[in-house]
Amino acid sequence: GTTILSLAEKIVELTGSSSTIESTESRRGEVTHYIASVEKAKQAFNYNPTIGFDEGIVKTVEWYNQYT
User: Fold this and answer.
1) Which of 10, 25, 45, 59 has its CA 20 to 30 A from that of 17?
2) 3-state SS track over the chain
C-alpha cells in the first residue's frame, strides 16, 4: 500500500511545488487503512499491469503538465 501522505509528497517533488502538506487527526469512525488490489481485474479481464505505481505517478504528472 501507499499512504496518501507519501503520494502527496511524491507529487510535490515531481511538480517542484512549494505547497505544504497539511494533515489532521482521523475523525472518529473513519476508516484509516485502504489497500487497493487488481486481483479481481486480473481474474475477470486477464489484466496484467505493466507500469508500477511510481512510474505511473510520473507519467500522470507528465500528462497533466502537457494538457493543462
Assistant:
1) 25
2) CCCHHHHHHHHHHHHCCCCCCCCCCCCCCCCCCCCCCCHHHHHHHCCCCCCCHHHHHHHHHHHHHHHC
- Render pLDDT for 52-62 as a digit per residue (tens, 0 to 9): 989 999 999 99
Q: State the helix-helix crossing angle for 53-67 and 4-15, rounded to 10 degrees.
A: 50
Per-residue model confidence (pLDDT) at position 32: 84
Q: Specify the amino acid at residue 1.
A: G
Sign of the dihedral defined by the CA atoms of residues 22, 67, 47, 45, in that order: positive
